[in-house]
UniProtKB/TrEMBL annotation:
The lineage of its organism: Bacteria, Bacillati, Actinomycetota, Actinomycetes, Kitasatosporales. The active site is at 253 (proton acceptor). It comes from the Bacteria. InterPro entries: COMT-like, COMT_C, COMT_dimerisation, SAM-dependent_MTases_sf, WH-like_DNA-bd_sf, WH_DNA-bd_sf. Residues 117-324 form the O-methyltransferase C-terminal domain. Keywords: Methyltransferase, S-adenosyl-L-methionine, Transferase. PANTHER family: O-METHYLTRANSFERASE CICE, PUTATIVE (AFU_ORTHOLOGUE AFUA_4G14580)-RELATED. This is Methyltransferase. One of its GO terms (molecular function) is O-methyltransferase activity.
Length: 344
C-alpha cells in the first residue's frame, strides 16, 4: 500500500513550488486590481461582478474572473455567485484608505522594478546591477528622468514608512535632542511623525530635489512648516550641520558598503560630541534565515540598486569605518522587520 504520509508531504512540496512559480502572476493580479480601481468600485458591501465591470469600463466575463482570483488571494470575499465585497486586506488597495498601500503595489509591480529581476541569475553570477544593464542608467537617475515614476516612488516610500512612523517616535528617546535631520527623508512622512510627537524638536529633511517634491505638502498637512526645513542636496557630498541626531530609514541598504561608509562619514563630520546617528533598517541574523520579505528585499537591492541588507556585524563595520561606534541594536517589533541601530 502507498505511504500516505510520504504522499502528503510530496504534495505539500509540489504545492509550495507551484505557488512560488505563480508568484509573479499574483503580483500582476494586484497591479491590475489597482489600475482598474477594483477595491473602491467593489466596496465593503456585496456587489455584482457585472456592475463592477460596467463601472470599470471592462468586459463582464474577464472582470468576474479577475474578482474570483482576487477572492482566492484573500482580497475579496464572494458572498454568492458573482457577488463580491472587499476584505480588510483588500481595502488596503483603496487609495482612500488611511493605511493604503496602493502606490506601494504600483511601484513594486512596475516594469522598472520587475524587469531587472529577470536577470537575477546574472547578478548572482557577476555581482553586477541588472537594472543598470537593462535601462542603461542607474535606478535613481532613471527616476529623475521620469517625474511621474519618481512621484509614484515617493508615494510608495511614504506608504512603506507609515507603519514605522506610527511607532518610532515612542520607541527612541528623541527628548535628548533639540534638532533631528532625516537623511534621505523623502516626503518627510517619518520626520513629521517624530516632530508631531515631540513639540520641542525642530527638523531638517535632506534629499534630492526629486525626493523632496512632495515634502512641502506633507509638512503643510501636519502644520510643521515652521519647525522643519527642507534641504535639497546629495548625501554623498555632504550633510547639513546643526542637528544632534541624524536619522536614516531604509537608506544604507540601497548602497554598497563603501557608499554607506561615505554617507555615515558625512554624518560623523557634522556630529556634535554628544550627537547620535540612528539607522532604521532590517538586521539580518548571522546564520538563521531571515523573514521572507527581508530576504527578497536583499535580492531586490542586488538587482536594482546594488545595495544589500546587513547583519549587526555588517552595520558595526560600516559604522567603524566611518568613525562611529554602534552603541545599541534594538528590534522594533511593532514595525517588523525593522531595528534601531544607534551609533555615537
Amino acid at each position: 500500500m502507498p505511504n500516505t504520509d510520504v504522499r502528503a508531504a510530496d504534495m505539500a512540496d509540489r504545492d509550495l513550488i507551484v505557488r512560488l512559480a505563480f508568484g509573479s502572476m499574483a503580483a500582476q493580479t494586484l497591479r491590475a486590481a489597482v489600475r482598474l480601481k477594483v477595491p473602491e468600485l467593489v466596496g465593503d458591501k456585496p456587489r455584482p461582478a457585472a456592475e463592477v465591470a460596467v463601472a470599470a469600463g471592462a468586459e463582464p466575463q474577464p472582470m468576474t474572473r479577475l474578482l474570483r482570483a482576487l477572492a482566492a488571494l484573500g482580497l475579496l470575499r464572494e458572498h454568492a455567485p458573482d457577488s463580491f465585497s472587499v476584505t480588510p486586506a483588500g481595502a488596503l488597495l483603496d487609495p482612500a484608505h488611511p493605511e493604503s498601500l496602493t502606490s506601494f503595489v504600483r511601484m513594486f509591480t512596475e516594469p522598472a522594478i520587475v524587469r531587472a529581476w529577470e536577470h537575477l541569475d546574472s547578478s548572482v553570477r557577476t555581482g553586477d546591477i541588472a537594472f543598470d544593464t537593462v535601462f542603461g542608467t542607474d535606478f535613481f537617475s532613471h527616476l529623475a528622468q521620469h517625474p511621474e515614476l519618481s512621484a509614484e516612488f515617493n508615494a510608495a516610500m511614504s506608504q512603506a514608512v507609515s507603519e514605522t512612523a506610527a511607532v518610532l517616535p515612542y520607541a527612541f528617546d528623541f527628548g535628548r535632542f533639540t534638532s533631528v535631520t532625516d537623511v534621505g527623508g523623502g516626503d518627510g512622512t517619518l520626520l513629521a511623525a517624530v516632530l508631531a510627537a515631540h513639540p520641542g524638536l525642530t527638523g531638517v529633511v535632506l534629499d534630492t530635489t526629486e525626493g523632496l517634491a512632495q515634502a512641502p505638502r506633507t509638512l503643510e498637512r501636519h502644520g510643521l512648516r515652521e519647525r522643519c526645513s527642507l534641504v535639497a542636496g546629495d548625501f554623498f557630498r555632504s550633510v547639513p550641520a546643526g542637528s544632534g541626531l541624524y536619522l536614516m530609514k531604509s537608506i544604507l541598504h540601497d548602497w554598497t558598503d563603501d557608499q554607506a561608509v561615505t554617507i555615515l562619514r558625512h554624518c560623523r563630520e557634522v556630529l556634535p560630541p554628544d550627537g547620535r546617528v540612528l539607522i532604521v533598517e532590517p538586521v539580518l541574523p548571522e546564520s538563521a534565515t531571515a523573514d521572507e520579505v527581508t530576504c527578497l528585499s536583499d535580492l531586490n537591492m542586488l538587482v536594482n540598486v546594488g545595495g544589500r541588507e546587513r547583519t549587526r556585524e555588517d552595520f558595526e563595520e560600516v559604522c567603524r569605518r566611518a568613525g562611529l561606534t554602534v552603541t545599541s541594536v534594538t528590534p522594533l517589533p511593532e514595525a517588523a522587520p525593522f531595528w534601531l541601530i544607534e551609533a555615537a
